[in-house]
Specification:
Helix content is 76%, strand content 0%. By secondary structure, the protein is an all-alpha fold. The chain is globular and about 40 Å long.
């Protein structure tokens, strides 16, 4: 019960940070929002942001498997990396977009997530920014 409450609190903070970051990235065309979203993913996985975002897709999945929350947060991680890839792609940063997309797909494959399924808590934001 305590671990579930802890995870819920972490997810609430993650969603708040992600909402702010994606809005800044999309509405203000400010790529610092992407970096903030990437930091939020790293924090969610209890990884160093600089290290986490340069990991090969399989290595990122491996690090998730070693964490205590990997399976519980996989859909949020996959969603975030996929949307950030879209933003980088729109901004012309193909190399970063490719890495983020590959990371998202690796997470989705490893945890049985569908990247087309938006987490419920992010549905309204997704429709607003990407719909």
């Amino acid at each position: 019960m305590l671990q579930r409450d802890y995870l819920l609190e972490i997810l609430i903070r993650f969603i708040e940070t992600l909402t702010r970051a994606l809005k800044r990235a999309v509405e203000q065309n400010d790529l610092s929002g992407c970096r903030e979203a990437e930091r939020a993913v790293a924090d969610l996985l209890e990884l160093d942001p600089e290290t986490a975002m340069v990991l090969a897709p399989a290595s990122l999945v491996q690090m998730m498997e070693l964490s205590n929350v990997g399976s519980a947060v996989a859909s949020y991680v996959g969603y975030t990396l996929d949307r950030v890839a879209d933003i980088y792609e729109d901004g012309g940063d193909e190399a970063t977009a490719e890495l983020r997309r590959a990371q998202a797909e690796a997470v989705a494959d490893a945890y049985g997530c569908d990247l087309m399924d938006v987490p419920d808590e992010l549905d309204e934001l997704d429709r607003e920014l990407f719909g």
